[in-house]
Amino acid sequence: MKRSLTILGLLWFALLAAKADAQTLTADATAAFEDDVHASAGLTCVACHQDQATSGEQFQTPPRTAIAPMCATCHSDATYMNRFNPQVRVDQFLEYQTSTHGRQMAAGEARVATCTDCHGAHGVKRVADPRSPVFPLNVTLTCARCHGDAERMKLFGHTAAPPADWAASVHAAALLERGDTSAPTCATCHGSHGAVPPGVSSVANVCAQCHIREAELFRASPKRDIFEAIGQAECLACHNNHKIEQPADAWVGLEEGTVCALCHDETGDSAETIRAIRRDLDLLSATMAEADATITRAEQAGMLLDDGRTALRDAREHQVQSHVLVHGFAAPPFSERATAGIASAQRAQEAGDAALEELQARRRGLAIATLLILAFLVTLGLKIRRLSWNA
Amino acid sequence: MASDSGRRSILNWLLGLWGTGVCGAVLYPVTRYLAPPDLPEAASQSVSAGSAQALLPNTGRIVPFGSRPAIVVRTATGELRAFSATCTHLDCTVQYRPDLHRIWCACHNGEYDLNGRNVAGPPPRPLEAFDVNVKDDEIVIARSS
Amino acid sequence: MSQTTLRSWLDERLPLADLIQTLRHKTIPHHRHSAWYYFGGVTLFLFGIQVGTGALLLLYYRPSASEAYESVQFITARVPFGWLIRSIHAWAANLMVAGAFAHFFSVLFLHAYRRPRELTWMSGVLLLLLTLGFGFTGYLLPWNEVSFFATRVGTDIATGVPIVGDSLVRFMRGGDDVTGATLTRLFGFHVAILPAITTALVGLHLLLVQRHGMSVPPSVERRSVDDPTALRSMPFLPHFLLRDLFAWTAVLALMAALATFYPWELGTKADAFAPAPAGIRPEWYFLWAFETLKYVPPSIAGIDGESLAVVTMGLAALGVLLLPFLAGHTPKAHRLILWVGVATLGFMTLMTALSLAGTAP
């Protein structure tokens, strides 16, 4: 009892700024429960606080290890849940029991997450509700409350790096800056109720859900067997697991600091391929940058360059696809695409050059017209002077 | 006096010469302007999308429409549909997948049905639909009014 | 047919001989201020340029909100020399307004409004207002962001007119706000209604100028009494005409250079639902009025400040129109007109400068 209260108190301070605190004060709990999905379903305090017969008295907080089984009495009962929402899943508790959180809790370690830590206790909202702590845009903050807390993580022998690492990733940028809810959060790779660190062999399957082309290419390439043999997770070897950053062309190469150099060196026939791929990537990027600069210069001088911009857009498409084809780790499919991209970029460059040339042509035309006009004006001036009109 | 009138006629001649030049410098651009350009109107409202006969059932074709790509699809039942080919997720160009009977985006595996609705993967919005008409075997797609 | 028989053929049918005879005898006064005489002709030349380039633009321009911007882009990018025609039209518009104002102020300062030139003056003032109207209506036609919001701001000023203000705004906008209906309406004004009225008034103005000849400033007249060389007579044909031609050709060269080195920008397409970008302002020739209204207090002696300012400007315009009947004829009166004119010009310049400084990026 006293231990529960101490832990609860610790949790309370840890979750102070969070949306899902336990609201141990009756007034707060009662107020929060007014906007709760359970309350809308007609449930009252005693549905969960079964130890008190009458309301109005201070309810005891259930022991943490008892919370999940208690929620499961309804949420695992398909017949019961069918009354409220026939589509809702009823396997959350089963999943939870397979998870690290669930297994620890079952062994008596109460300092891990249970239902109320993520979903809240008295103001539970639907997952699709933007105010819910497990709404896709909020879920990483919820996980980070514990997994970003270095003190807490040390107790279990973990670092608190993952949330901060993820926050520096392109997926975080997609989710939080662009509101792209298809971007993966903690739950996407780790699971929500069945949260476990994904197995080395299986995390790439999650990546493959969206990055299907890269996965297909990789699995058709020699790398797949090699990585399996050396126990490397496919995507993670080069792209990391949490801090997935924007890949750069400079990753490809044999110099220090490149990703390939982690395994490859100058020996072996792969060195030639690596260098060729890097060369093409650099050439494509440089040609595109040059074309863009030329086109921008022409546009600033007043020319309109739809064709140039379209060609540059095509080049960009080819570049995106070239980056995908890098995952084939071979010259043929990649180099064709890169070459097509370079050709488009060159077309864009030509359009830009043509526009600048047109500008020069206009000025030449103007020079001719001005010379004619000046010649005319000089001659006219002479004629005017000759004509005396003294009157 | 003779040299005087001589100078005057040279001056008049020069004036006539330069004057014609100036008139030419004015009339040349105006004449060129009056001749309609190869593409008689801005391709912003409608554009030709190639031969109708050459577009077989269950195939798609990408055509430029203004500065962005458009996709025209002939369904398995023979109907023509046209949409913007810019994926609503991250702007990649979509393509028609005959095996899926859907429009597909290679970048992140997004899918749209043949009404342009986003039905699988990341895309958050449907593809903009265009009007399709056929005139003498030429497919013409136009922005919906 | 030889030249003389062609001439006699035409002369039998058209009053050519009379016309040439009249022009042969026409003279232009030449004095220290006669350089200002060219400004009327330059303004007329620019009007001719506008009609010509405007007609050419009409061949490709589409006056609807969904196509106007694209058609101007088409002209600038795809039509051969479309860039030249369009930029000349835009530059010549500004030069014409400047020329009209220069012509107006020079006529004011040289007191050419005096009897018997009252009607010439009044038709000229109306022509100045029509020129401003051309500028205002034409500015919206490319349907870009800048012109859309400038039109909205400009038409807002009309709300300051008492009693008829709101109806006036609705009349100008074709509705309550600036929409495609405004574009169609202003287009109609720009290419049909205003040109029709302007052509009639220009015809009258030129007829009167021909009838009365060029006015000689009173100071020159006084000086010529003692010094005959102070006022001489230059024949129109060919001397003045050649000088006119010189001025017009120089303006042509200037316009070509401006169009080539400072092409008029396309801007971004107007979007009624986008917020107005910072620093929106009407065309430069309206800035002085725009800025003056900013300084007017919200209410003066219980009357709405903006209404009072707009009414004052209206009364001032009316005063300018009726100047020949209000102005005195003594040298003292002339000096007063001169100083009032200088003060007005100074005020307008100051307000324009302040406006430009205030809305500078």
Alpha-carbon Rg of chain C, integer: 23 Å
CATH topology of the largest domain in chain B: Rieske Iron-sulfur Protein
Determine the N-to-C terminus distance of chain B.
77 Å
Our count of helices of chain C gives: 15
The amount of beta strand of chain C, in percent, is under 5%
What is the molecular shape of chain C? globular
In round numbers, the mean pLDDT of chain C is 91
The strand line-up of the biggest sheet of chain B is 1-10-9-4-3-2
Overall tally of domains of chain B? 2
Short description:
The complex is a heterotrimer of chains A (391), B (145) and C (361). Chain A is mostly helical. Helix content of chain A is 59%, strand content 0%.
Describe this structure in words.
The complex is a heterotrimer of chains A (391), B (145) and C (361). With 391 residues, chain A is mainly alpha-helical. Chain A has 3 domains: 195 residues, no CATH class; 49 residues, no CATH class; 117 residues, Butyryl-CoA Dehydrogenase, subunit A, domain 3 (Up-down Bundle), CATH 1.20.140. Helices cover 59% and strands 0% of the residues of chain A. In chain A, helix 18 packs parallel to helix 20. The longest helix of chain A is centred in the C-terminal third of the chain and has 56 residues. With 145 residues, chain B is of the alpha+beta class. Chain B has 2 domains: 35 residues; 98 residues, Rieske [2Fe-2S] iron-sulphur domain (Rieske Iron-sulfur Protein), CATH 2.102.10. In chain B, strand 2 and strand 3 form a beta hairpin. Chain C is built from 15 helices and 4 strands. In chain C, strands 1-2 form a two-stranded antiparallel ribbon. A two-stranded antiparallel sheet of chain C has the order 3-4. In chain C, a hairpin with a 2-residue loop joins strand 3 and strand 4. The longest helix of chain C has 33 residues. Chains A and B meet through helix 19 and helix 20 of A and helix 1 of B.
